[in-house]
Amino acid sequence: MGKGGRMGEQELLLEAPLHGDILGEILTRVPLIQLLPASRVSKSWRQSVASTLLHPSRVKPWLIVHVQSRRNPLVTITRAYDPGSNIWIEITGVGSPLSSSLRSSHSNFLYTLSPSKFTFSFDALHDKWYETVGPRVWRSDPIVSMIGSNVIVAGGVCDFEDDPLAVEIYDINSGHWEMCESMPDMFKESSSSTWLSVAVADAKMFLMEKCSGRICSFDPKTKIWKQPTTVRPDPSIFLFLMGSLSRDRLILTGFIGEPESVQGLKIYEVNCDPLDCKEIGEMPSWMLKKLQNDDSQLCLINITASENIVYVYNPADLREIVYCDFANGESKWGSVTGSGIDGSNWMNRSTFTCSKMSITDLQKSFGSGDRKFTVK
């Protein structure tokens, strides 16, 4: 919306003022992204907007899809799904140094990696990017995570390097890389993000082998790996994916059956120490069918999670994205169409992040006018 249009809207609202419960009721029906103009009308409106957002159902983690051209990494389309308003939003004017392929790690961590440069961003809408020299060890498919001011880069080492399990930590405050204890030997044949799922909880990085359920954790403070173990709450699970919710809740998503015949999908909450599992949700069978068809590859399915929501998606088939909302201690399943995002287009690659969004985050991103949004 242009500046003139916004001023005209505000003048109209001021001529016919709304107050109290009536204003509050109206604002509860307005999508979060469109509350930005309302918050600028007056002090009383700003207070009403703030009051409206106190309800948990209004502020839920957004799913953000970054569609990048393989031919030209600078060409990127960003679309966000707001589950609280059930709308897709296209974001333009995203300023990011995308000189190479965009990748994502747990929740909202985005990064690019080349032999000479490492760039990353971790705020809600990725307004701020950090840039530094690349790790000492060249990696093509590493596991990356962020804990506090430390960015951990592990495994994914190219064949010509000496240690395939090498681990390095980048300290944002000092701007320096540090070599650490290598990954456990059990990951020697699977030390890349292709074969490992990563999550952060309890100020530790957790790695799980997707095909076996073998898991271990790394503490960036002590720089020590904990002895690996196996977590398999159901012997029929053949694909393991990890994530984390609010308050350091570690979760495990398990696909049950066989790759050719998936029988179910269950979500477990995992206690960090000891690693005990408790089932907290099971996907309805009719929703499971939305994730698999004759053209889609089950091995590509992944998850992204934040706060109380887990999104389950297939980047090669974005016609339907499934999610589970654990608010109020219940598991509520839903799905959303991909709003025109074509994951089957081999000329593009899709990267996913998930982040809780506040009105402050939106003000930072769209307040300057450099970024624009369009509700799809």
TrEMBL record:
- Show the Pfam families listed in the entry: F-box (PF00646)
Q: Which InterPro entries match?
A: F-box-like_dom_sf, F-box/kelch-repeat_ARATH, F-box_dom, Kelch-typ_b-propeller
User: What residues does the F-box domain cover?
Assistant: 21-52
Any one cellular-component term (Gene Ontology):
nucleus
GO annotations under biological process?
Answer: proteasome-mediated ubiquitin-dependent protein catabolic process
PANTHER family attached here? F-BOX DOMAIN-CONTAINING PROTEIN, F-BOX/KELCH-REPEAT PROTEIN SKIP4
| Protein name in UniProt | F-box domain-containing protein
What is the organism of origin for this protein? Kingdonia uniflora
